[in-house]
Specification:
12% strand; alpha/beta; 874 residues; 36 helices; single chain
Length: 874
């Protein structure tokens, strides 16, 4: 039934006064007084009784579901709690509209129900923690997601820009906005977030509606917008959201649910859970809305001492259903089912795929949670500060770094991201990236000749920075920096491994201290040499984030069993309750025992794929761990370490001996390698099947290089877990060195210096004299030529340590020159004399002459001019 309300000015005045008192009591005490609600109810009933056919509608509603649509041009009249006048008719739903008549609406999208949730929690607005709010929503949707009746996606943040991105990518049935709204000077506003800083960005309803109007051209406008905009605004003045809702209605949104006042968080959760459950079960919108309101009323009646205090249920009257069309269902029963593609979301914890290489945010990509850390990091980066994302393995540091880079790219398309990690641990690898960007992307080939004229590596880097800056603004991402640190027992601290990685240290130093380019570093430990780095701690993973990921992985099939109480374990019963565990209980156990580690969660998911319902035994073991350990041990990570090892060992049980041997051999390599590396260790045996299985179990990462060759790599976290296991097989360091040298000699490498350096390390451990002499000479010479003298010295001394008197004389010569540069003249003379003797043995007159000249210069510097002259005369 549709009623165009006829309200006299006198009635309007009386209703307005009563409504003002009603909402004032709602805002101040959550519930209205009995006397206030009774007076308002009587006045509303009196106004409706004079409408034609109203009594007939009431009569029908005794036994049959009915929808009463009330129409009036004045928002304040429409916004009155008319449902109070018909509360004895549970089957009668009331909707509001500004139109005299409503046309039928025909949705185009099929099931499952797709919901986009936007939570705006800007700085400066007093609200509950957004993690808690998202968790409430997830709890509401969890049963529906478990049954496949609904799919829920979140925006990255509460910004208008990100909302537009998400709506452009996918057609959603429902947009659920949770945040704060105000109505001021006849203008509705929403408190949204600045996409970079997270600060409050007061956005007019017109701007919000403009986004919806733009996506409407793609037929991506939602059928229903739910404005839960006062859900957590307790203690603030009542916000009349009619301004925002009206604007959306004027923009032809088919249906809007808005809040006429602040609503308690728990009641809003009850409302949302029931509303979405009913919609997913394919009830009409009006019926779902009515049952959701009645759920609130039932909860209110159980409020302690409500009636005794002279108060009445009133929160159930806050939600308002506004219609532009006669919307019955939000989805077309006959349309084909079309599920959301959450692949990019899942990929966040699968492997270490560099999203930044895509240059744009992938479709449907949402970075999971971490709003606080994102804001802190982006704020520092915008100010030109360098940041360290610090946390243990598996907590999402790399994903966060990539997300920050994507956010910066979105804000400024001129950015160019350069990444660096332990997979290619030489500074030259980063310089090569920058050079390739200029030559391959910008066709600026003169950079090659320019670099050839610059000897010093740091000067080359500074020159590349300048040239890259001509085309855009570089962003630098240094990942897993703990690989470049060593623990100093004397200082009880992690310090930079200068002997092996001084070149990388110098690049970070230049970026941190001499440029304002964004520098993002990830690592497990603080970097003592850079005390001014802004640190974002990542170890604490919010449960809401973890819970969301659990729903997106394969083991969410457990949720279906939990709904019917079919999880067969007494270990996980809810504390204090004789009830079977819910899926949320399972996720909480995993969150606690894994310490929020996403990698461990991924392992558990793979384990479920293998074990199915036998996974319950693993859950019982994890529960036993939790019960036996005290809180201090949990805080120190003992629980998570035990749990991760348990899951890892279970996963390893699906590998046969050959598979385990393959994994062990691969884990000994520090950088991605070709399958040949394993074959050389195992008499050319084909291990492709074992590699495939390890990749499928997410124990090994497979990547394709620029030439199409497949390389394999064991991530540091898995290497750590493997080292704690009992798995051990033979490994030949000399053969490993031969592999790296072969790739170098045959141009199979991605970075020649990285391969050569790895060959050196293997030959060093194998004490292979001839090989380390050859490789050591090349590396020593390279670093000498680019004036990385400390590194050149280190490789020279380590070569001599193995080769002893067989050391290449060129190395001795360079060692003498480097020590001379460092002012260590006597040791310099020792090495130059060794070089001279070898030159004479080999009758190398040119080398002999050069060495004599160098020795003469040292004696000249010492003031021994006679001896200096004697060497010149030789």
């Amino acid at each position: 039934m549709h009623i165009n309300l006829k309200i006299s000015e006198l009635e309007k005045s009386e209703l307005s006064d009563l409504a003002a008192q009603f909402y004032q009591e709602i805002e101040g005490h959550f519930f209205p007084k009995n006397t206030t609600l009774s007076a308002l109810k009587a006045q509303l009933k009196q106004s409706l009784d004079q409408e034609e056919d109203f009594e007939k509608t009431l009569e029908v509603a005794k036994t049959k579901a009915q929808l009463l649509v009330l129409s009036h041009k004045d928002t304040a009249i429409r916004n009155l709690p008319w449902q109070a006048a018909t509360q004895d008719r549970d089957l009668l739903a009331i909707a509001k509209t500004h139109k005299p008549e409503l046309e039928d609406y025909h949705p185009k999208l099929g099931y499952p129900l797709k919901v986009l949730v936007m939570v705006a929690s800007p700085e400066g607005v007093t609200r509950l923690a957004y993690e808690e709010e998202e968790l409430h929503l997830l709890r509401a949707f969890s049963p529906l997601m478990s049954k496949g009746q609904a799919q829920v996606h979140f925006t990255d943040d509460g910004s208008l820009e990100n909302l537009k991105d998400k709506l452009e990518e996918t057609k959603y049935h429902i947009l659920h906005f949770s945040g704060h709204g105000i109505y001021k000077n006849e203008q509705g506003y929403l408190a949204l977030e600045d996409p970079i800083t997270g600060k409050t960005q007061m956005t007019t309803a017109e701007k919000f509606n403009k986004v919806l109007a733009e996506v409407d051209q793609m037929e991506h406008r939602p059928e229903l917008v739910v404005l839960s905009a006062c859900q957590t605004a307790q203690g603030q003045a009542a916000g009349d959201l009619s301004g925002v809702a009206d604007t959306l209605m004027q923009g032809d949104i088919p249906a809007v649910i808005a809040m006429s006042a602040s609503i308690l968080d728990s009641f809003a959760t009850f409302f949302a859970a029931k509303l979405y459950a009913q919609l997913s079960a394919r009830y009409p919108l009006s019926s779902a809305f009515q049952k959701a309101r009645l759920t609130i009323r039932g909860a209110e009646l159980n409020w302690p001492n409500l009636i005794e205090s002279g108060l009445s249920p009133g929160q159930w009257l806050i939600p308002q259903l506004l219609l532009n069309n006669k919307v019955l269902n939000l989805a077309d029963e006959n349309a084909p089912s079309e599920a959301l593609n959450l692949e990019n979301d899942v990929q966040i914890i699968r492997g270490e795929k560099a999203l930044v290489e895509l240059r744009v945010r992938p479709k449907n990509y949402v970075f999971v949670g971490r709003r606080k850390e994102k804001r802190i990091a982006l704020r520092h980066l915008r100010k030109g500060h360098s940041i360290l994302l610090r946390g243990q393995g598996g907590v999402g540091k790399t994903a966060m770094a990539e997300h920050l880079a994507i956010r910066l790219l979105a804000a400024n398309p001129k950015h160019k991201v350069f990444t660096f990690s332990e997979k290619a641990p030489s500074a030259q690898a980063l310089l090569n990236q920058m050079r390739d960007y200029l030559t391959k992307e910008k066709k600026d080939f003169k950079i090659v000749s320019e670099l050839a004229l610059i000897e010093k590596q740091t000067d080359q880097f500074i020159h590349l920075l300048g040239r890259v800056s001509e085309y855009g603004e570089p962003i630098f991402l240094f990942d897993n920096i703990e690989s470049f640190q060593i623990f100093d027992e004397s200082q009880s601290a992690w310090i930079w491994h200068q002997e092996k990685h001084e070149d990388v240290f110098q690049l970070i130093q230049i970026l941190d201290q001499h440029t304002s380019f964004p520098l993002i570093i990830t690592g497990r430990y603080p970097i003592a040499e850079f005390p001014d780095l802004k640190i974002c701690n990542m170890n604490t993973v919010p449960f809401a984030d973890f819970f969301r990921k659990c729903h997106q992985l394969g083991f969410n099939a457990l949720a279906k069993g939990s709904l019917s109480g079919q999880i067969p374990t007494a270990k996980l019963k809810r504390q204090g309750e004789d009830k079977p565990p819910s899926f949320e209980d399972v996720c909480k156990l995993l969150h606690t025992t894994f310490g929020g580690n996403y990698r461990a969660l991924e392992f558990f998911d793979e384990l479920y794929a293998q074990k199915g319902e036998n996974i319950f035994k693993i859950l019982e073991k994890l529960s036993d761990f939790e019960e036996k350990l005290n809180e201090q041990q949990i805080k120190e990570g003992v629980l998570s370490q035990m749990s991760e090892n348990l899951i890892f060992e279970e996963l390893l049980s699906y590998l046969d001996e050959k598979d385990k041997d393959t994994l062990f051999v691969l884990a000994q390599f520090n950088i991605p390698v070709l399958p040949m590396a394993i074959g050389m260790q195992r008499e050319s045996e084909d291990r492709s099947t074992s590699l495939k299985k390890a990749v499928e179990l997410t124990l090994v990462e497979k990547q394709t290089d620029g030439t199409g060759r497949e390389r394999y790599y064991v991530m540091p976290l898995i290497r750590d877990l493997l080292s704690n296991s009992e798995i051990h097989y033979p490994f030949d360091e000399k053969l490993a060195g031969d592999y790296h040298k072969y790739t170098y000699d045959n141009d199979l490498e991605e970075d020649w210096l990285v391969e050569l350096t790895e060959a050196f390390e293997r030959y060093y451990l194998a004490e292979a004299v001839d090989e380390i002499n050859e490789v050591g000479n090349r590396i020593n010479n390279f670093y000498f030529n680019i004036q990385q003298f400390r590194l050149s010295l280190a490789y020279g001394l380590r070569t001599e340590e193995i080769a002893r008197e067989k050391t290449n004389s060129n190395i001795w010569n360079r060692l003498g020159l480097i020590l001379q540069i460092f002012g260590q003249l006597d040791p310099a003379l020792v090495y130059l004399q060794k070089s001279l003797e070898d030159d004479k043995k080999r009758e190398d007159r040119k080398g002999e002459g050069t060495t004599l000249n160098n020795i003469s210069q040292i004696y000249d510097g010492k003031g021994d001019y006679d001896r200096a002259l004697s060497y010149l005369e030789q």
